[in-house]
Specification:
The protein is an alpha/beta fold. It is about 40% helix and about 20% strand. The protein contains 13 helices and 15 strands. A hairpin with a 5-residue loop joins strand 12 and strand 13. The radius of gyration is 21 Å and the shape is globular. It starts with a helix and ends in a 12-residue tail after the last helix.
Length: about 400
């Protein structure tokens, strides 16, 4: 199996055009070409068993199945099918799977879960093969900058929106000096870079940082380095199990007694796993929360019935993105990539279960409202999963970079 993956990856790379030079869909309205193969196939690539499986993983599969169920399991008599693969946090596995799905299984759309490097690899494949791609769990802003494609939609959040929400709020509340623990891959580095920009622009300073290997089981040596810094804020530019391990280690060594611990990408499953005692008061930025309104509570109850836990914002985003794609197929009567992307980018006021006040720009960025949250104290919480209180809404135009700031070079 590994040999097949590497062979497919090599073939894909050798035949690959740089995504920034990929041909854009025609600006005119494409002609719907019907549904190819009489089946609508969705390919979901994510971490199904590793250190970020809790934030997406099997729960993301359940969320997508709910979206297919809500579409009636078919569109115009054409059955909807779901294919999944565990990328194991390896970009070569992700790229090989997507190549095979498109070439042999006629997959119509790719949903990218966690890991920015895997999503960047997928973006290169779909640019050459012209298949719509919704990047859900990737934070790197490269997906709509230097690595943009005409077929990518960066759907849920990016490192810029996270930094502009959380880092800015912490500096404004007195957290002026920072030290970073940063995951040593595309997402972590992007998140630190964007946070540093925000911190400096807000009048703060960064006094140091250390890069940590992905899926680090023992953070003690890194936390000790942070403890030795005079910084008053410990910024965690990581996610999933890495975030949980870092917070637990910081509590064990008493770092949270002298520094404010700030998670720059936080999921409700992280808070559930760590507990309110060691996370109370933490600021975080998120596009979605299960207890946000009546609709999110009702959907979350359905999700919990099958997944046995409340959904993370990524799992809700998986549902939202697949529902949005299926709506595009239903509206156009087609799974033709250019027809779909024309429809997606023509929607100017998207409001659904996940997106508020959204639209997809030409560079593929889904601009939408975010929320600044704070983790409740144990006394404020009514029980399990009641963990957030909203501090402020962040309009999409303020959360994300402007189109003028984008370095996307689509023709």
């Amino acid at each position: 199996m590994k040999c097949l993956c590497h062979t497919l990856l090599l073939a894909s790379i050798l035949g690959l055009a740089a995504p920034s030079h990929a041909q854009s869909p025609s600006p005119g309205k494409p002609q719907a070409a019907g549904i190819s193969g009489d089946v609508i196939r969705i390919g979901f690539v994510t971490d199904l068993s590793g250190f970020t499986a809790d934030v997406d993983g099997p729960g993301g599969v359940q969320a997508i199945r709910l979206a297919i169920e809500d579409a009636g399991g078919q569109i115009a008599g054409k059955k909807i099918e779901l294919l999944t693969i565990d990328h194991q946090h390896r970009s070569d596995i992700a790229a090989a799977a997507v190549s095979k799905w498109i070439d042999q299984d006629n997959v119509d759309v790719i949903i990218g879960g966690t890991n920015s490097s895997a999503n960047l690899a997928i973006a290169h494949i779909i640019a050459a093969k012209k298949v719509p791609f919704f990047a859900i769990g990737a934070g790197t802003d490269a997906l709509t900058n230097k690595d943009c494609t005409p077929y990518t939609v960066h759907y849920a959040y990016n490192s810029i929106a996270l930094a502009r929400g959380t880092a800015q709020a912490v500096v404004q509340h007195g957290g002026k000096t920072w030290f970073f623990l940063t995951s040593d891959y595309a997402f972590g580095k992007d998140l630190e870079k964007e946070s540093v920009n925000v911190i400096k622009a807000s009048g703060g300073k960064v006094l140091g940082s250390v890069y940590t290997p992905l899926n680090t089981p023992d953070y003690s040596s890194f936390v000790m380095q942070a403890q030795g810094s005079p910084a008053t804020v410990l910024g965690l530019a990581n996610a999933g199990g890495d975030f949980i391990n870092a917070v637990k280690s910081a509590a064990e060594f008493g770092v949270n007694a002298s520094k404010k611990i700030v998670g720059l990408l936080v999921f409700i499953s992280d808070i559930h796993g760590i507990g309110l005692k060691d996370t109370q008061g933490m600021y975080l930025t998120t596009p979605w929360y299960w207890d946000q309104n009546e609709a999110t509570r009702a959907w979350s109850q359905r999700f919990e019935a099958v997944a046995k836990r409340k959904p993370t914002m990524l799992q809700a985003a998986d549902y939202g993105a697949v529902s949005f794609y299926l709506k595009a197929v239903g509206a156009t009567g087609s799974d033709d990539p250019d027809t779909i992307m024309h429809w997606v980018k023509s929607q100017k006021a998207i409001n659904d279960l996940f997106i508020r006040n959204g639209h997809v720009r030409r560079d593929g960025l889904m601009v939408h409202d975010m929320m600044l949250m704070q983790v409740k104290t144990p006394e404020e919480s009514s029980g399990a999963w009641d963990y957030y209180k909203k501090i402020a809404d962040i309009p999409g135009a303020r959360a994300f970079q402007t189109e003028a700031e984008s370095t996307c070079q689509l023709p």
